[in-house]
Amino acid sequence: MTVDASAPPTRRAVVPPQRGNIARRGSVFLSRHPRLRLSLLLSAPLFWLGLVYIAALAALLITALWTVDSFTGQISQTWTLDNIVAVLTGSLYQTVTLRTVGVALLVTIIDIVIALPIAFYMAKVASPRAQRILVIAILMPLWASYLVKAYAWRSVLSQGGIFEWLVSPFGGHSPGYGLPATIITLSYLWLPYVILPIYAGLERVPDSLLEASADLGGGTWSTLRLVVLPMIWPAIIAGSIFSFSLSLGDYITVNIVGGANQMLGNLVYTNVGAANNLPLAAAIAFIPILIIFAYLAAVRRTGALNNL
Amino acid sequence: MRLSRPARGLLAAITAVVLALIYLPLLVVFVNSFSTSQNLTWPPPGFTLEWWAKAFQSEGALDAVLTSLQVALASTAIALVLGTLISIGLQRFEFFGRDAISLLVILPIALPGIVTGIALNNAFRTGLGVQLSILTLIIAHATFCIVTVFNNVIARLRRLGTSLEDASSDLGAGIWTTFRLVTFPQLRSALFAGGLLAFALSFDEIIVTTFTAGSGVKTLPLWILDNLFRPNQAPVVNVIAVVLVLVSILPIYFAQRIAGAEKIVR
């Protein structure tokens, strides 16, 4: 996400006298060879990402095609499609996949619906001073540990917790632990990650455009729909990538407030740990990988990836 | 579009309600850090400073904070260098495969943490045959921190354009001089914002950490996970969360001030 302001003032730079040293010659050589400059720039980061990340993902894909020896518990490198077939056909995996995607989608929708009015207020209504305070107020909860916040919701939603205490005079009940609690907690956790890109996107919408729309007879709703929404759409999608993918892989929040419900992350986690079946865990891990790739491919054209 | 007074009021009201909801759980954490009840019943039966005293004497917690600081500083430093290099490369050059590379940078944060976690765990232990340690943890964190620096720096570069850099080289400055005196000063606040997010991301990360930290390495989130469900420790965990939120005001405030100062100058 981009928390960003405009360009800083340019100061008067004192250019040092030219010297015929190595740095100077290197600079001359490089400025004549842009391709070399590019490869020097990209070699270190690409080496890092390729070696550390892509190689690791590829290795995981290969592991999914191996199996675990049931006697020794060691991974035996015999090629098999059993894990993939088990994941594709097992009803457990289908149910959990649907549940996880459903939770992730709901969390994303809730976050966007909440984030839009707040981001709009911050970017277009609040005074500059209030704006700065609001950004701080949105950023600050990010620093309270994820675990502590999830656990705070456990305490808020518990029997005799503050939620029950607040709503019981009106005859309400705490939803208790389960999927609703999971959705509430995840929406809470990822909300700042959705507000910030949308706020940054709205800040880039010039006020003059809104005035022009009004001068030309556009009402509030048609201005929002025809002018603002198309401009901030990439920012909304960028926010949704955060909430969607963070929800999709979560297993800790479900453990804390989800009761007995499992999400995809739990299945992966149990198979890595207790069940000691890395090949099966790797095969399950490919469900979220495929879903995220499909999502990224679908939103790539909106330019959302430039708005994260 | 001119918002009517009621519409502005409604937006302000929604913002206030949501902010209240955002701070409600944090308020619960704050109040519970003084509560005499260990299992967080509401309303608290009484108040005590016991947990605050315990938290500042808890060696486990203080060690964990130091470990987390080391990991977050190291991975932020790596992310700053790699993220800046990659964003200059992608923004200032046209070449085939640019989209693929920007997808590659986003991937470690877009894919679920548990996928990144088990992939790196598998690669470190069975692929490379190295013991998990604080170094493997830093490598893992740096990998997903690159994206925050990348996003901030590339957005800034896009907005700056190349005219000042071109002017600098027309006036005879070499590549290094131009970067040092023209490009870098203009990137500084973007680097600060990106670095701050990278630091926060690393400091609070738990899932990838679970799979890539050596057995002796206890970051703060790992320590919290160990202690959250222990009756005597839960209030101490609350104290630490409160302290973290309060301490975090400073860097966020500075980031805002830098950004705000630049805006006024424009």
Give a concise summary.
Chain A: The chain crosses the membrane at residues 40-66, 101-121, 133-153, 177-202, 223-244, 278-298. Chain A is built from 13 helices and two strands, in the order H-H-E-E-H-H-H-H-H-H-H-H-H-H-H. With 308 residues, chain A is mainly alpha-helical.
Structure explained in plain terms:
Chain A: It is a multi-pass membrane protein. Chain A: Keywords: Cell membrane, Membrane, Transmembrane, Transmembrane helix, Transport. Chain A: It is found in: Cell membrane. Chain A: This is ABC transporter permease. The complex is a heterodimer of chains A (about 300) and B (about 270). Chain A is an all-alpha fold and about 300 residues long. Chain A has one domain: MetI-like (MetI-like fold). Helix content of chain A is about 70%, strand content about 0%. Chain A is built from 13 helices and 2 strands. Chain A has a two-stranded antiparallel ribbon. In chain A, a hairpin with a 6-residue loop joins strand 1 and strand 2. In chain A, helix 12 packs antiparallel against helix 13. The mean pLDDT of chain A is about 85. Chain B has one domain: MetI-like (MetI-like fold, Orthogonal Bundle), CATH 1.10.3720. Chain B is built from 11 helices and no strands. The interface between A and B is large, with 117 and 125 residues.
H/E order of the elements of chain A? HHEEHHHHHHHHHHH
Biggest contact: A-B, 117 and 125 residues
How far apart are the termini of chain A? Answer: 4 Å
* Tally of domains of chain A: 1
Count of spatially separate domains of chain B: 1
- Any idea what the radius of gyration of chain A is? 25 Å
Mean pLDDT of chain A: 83
The CATH class of chain B is Mainly Alpha
Low-confidence stretches of chain A are none
Name the structural class of chain B. Answer: mainly alpha
Give the strand content of chain B: under 5%
The number of distinct β-strands of chain A equals 2
Name of the CATH architecture of chain A: Orthogonal Bundle
Structure summary, number of beta strands of chain B: 0
Biggest β-sheet strands, sense, barrel of chain A: 2 strands, antiparallel
Q: Which segments of chain B are poorly predicted (pLDDT under 50) over 5 or more consecutive residues?
A: none
Order of helices and strands of chain B: HHHHHHHHHHH
Figure out the total of helices of chain A: 13
CATH third-level topology of chain B: MetI-like fold
- What general form of chain B does the structure show? globular
Domain ABC transmembrane type-1 (chain B): 65-255
Main location (chain B): membrane
Subcellular location (chain B): Cell inner membrane; Cell membrane
Membrane topology (chain B): Multi-pass membrane protein
